[in-house]
Amino acid sequence: MTESNGPVPQGPQDHQHTPDWEKRFRAPRVSLPEWAEDAPDRSLFVSNATGTYELYAWDRATGEQRQVTDRPNGTTDGVLSPDGEWIWWFDDKDGDEFGVWRRQPFTGGADEPAAPGLEPSYPAGLALGRDGRTAVVGRSTDEDGTTIHLVRDGEPPVEIYRHGESAGVGDLSHDGTLIALEHTEHGDAMHSALRVVRPDGTPVAELDDTKGGTVELGLEVLGFAPVEGDTRLLIGHQRRGRWEPLVWDVASGEESDLALDLPGDMSAEWYPDGSALLVAHSFEARSELFRFDLATRELTRLDTPPGTVSGASARPDGTVEYLWSSSAEPSAVRSTAGGVVLDPPGLKSPGSVPVEDVWVEGPGGRIHALVQKPAGVSGPLPTVFDIHGGPTWHDSDSFAAGPAAWVDHGYAVVRVNYRGSTGYGRAWTDALKHRVGLIELEDIAAVRAWAVDSGLADPERLVLTGGSWGGYLTLLGLGTQPDLWTLGIAAVPVADYVTAYHDEMEALKAMDRTLLGGTPEEVPERFEASSPITYVDQVKAPVYISAGVNDPRCPIRQIENYVKRLQARGAVHEVYRYDAGHGSLVVDERIKQVRLELDFAARHLPRG
Known about the structure:
Helix 1 (20-26) runs antiparallel to helix 2. A nine-stranded mixed β-sheet has the order 1-37-36-35-34-32-33-31-30, with helices on both faces. The protein contains ten helices and 37 strands. The protein is globular, with a radius of gyration of 24 Å. By secondary structure, the protein is α+β, with helices and mostly antiparallel strands. The relative contact order is 0.10.
């Protein structure tokens, strides 16, 4: 057994001799720029240019860029005010996600409290007004549940909403007279209902698609129309078994169903003049963009390359900027006008190999898996099953430095969009209930059987790995499927479900109650069946665990409980703890973690 809390080593500065897998992490990356509604030349983006992910201001008129935040553990949560005058950013402690909003002038200057009078909390949404002095701030704490406050400069915050279940701020209307909220007062954290209120908290309209029983449908706020006095709210719904956009006039109650003839899930946002919608369409792990004209109801596909669009925004001139990548090509901010919008200088990230699609018959239906393997190499290969987190998320044909590092070292990588994943319809996502963890592992085992039978994977050299929910499934799989896996690598996992429930942030407690049907005291048998620590004595494979000591999502105490059980058995395991939260925003730290994982696999896998 090995435990490590040592300093993060500095990576090599001579990039000529830096291996490709490390270059992918070190290469400067940027997010899709957010631009100010009333000052579109002013933008905000996230970059790792300094080696830590921080917020940057960009004046498009002058080309000037400046770093806004500078914290040891990085900053990614920021919002630009509609007038372009202020940058709001969330200030937590070392990644614990518990803190307060601060703001800084766009042109630079000292930070100041953005919402004086509000105590630290977990964030539950934020909407900023066009007047430059109004904000709607959502907060979540273990004691109060969710509270939402109206904040105006020079005035004390006013509470306009409070409930014990999870909720959040959706949007603030263009004229500041309407506030859209998402809430789960019905107790189902997977399916929100909507409420629109006035700034004093008075209800204006309600929309609730939750049906109870076995059929439950969710709603989400996509944004108010960007037009003065316009009461149209763009929302997402699941009425036809998938996510689709809908325009709801909250004043009249009229609902305008787009009824777009596209397979898969859709989301949307307004074009700046409110005449059209930018539709993001996701299907079978890839995505594309469309323009939908609300007057003519014409749907026009925008020219984007095959792969994944992970964010898009329509500009005032009608062009669309989008963040795109594929498994073979690193991410870039592009424009439908042509070319790259934001191209950071410095080291360029090497590409990787394309992904191959595999469909496997499973116990709950066809399972989609994405496979990468070293070029020109035939199997059977040592194979990494890299399991995504969420669980309501999915792997896509997008660039990922972690899987590419395994491929560089001679491994095949298989990623499984198990039941519970998004992007394959509501029924596939909602299948994840009560038998939590066990359902996903049935699908992963089916894909594993295909990988072995097809000759891709060496059954004696199989790695189960993942982070967050993927880390949870790794530990649960090692205990419930001990003969299927050669070793396991779990990052920031749930390891002891009951202890995790009692220590985690309130919003995640609500999600766990929804998934498992109650609290650990109400349904103890379900928590026990879904908890990795229940099966820790059945684990045969060497186990590597990494954990952030400030993690509010997969807290450290429940991981220590699991590790103590491994220690008591004398099981082969290694633990790495680092001073951050649910993952790290520091590039050197992330490289160190990948290096430790690669080394662990090299030492414990049999040689082929």
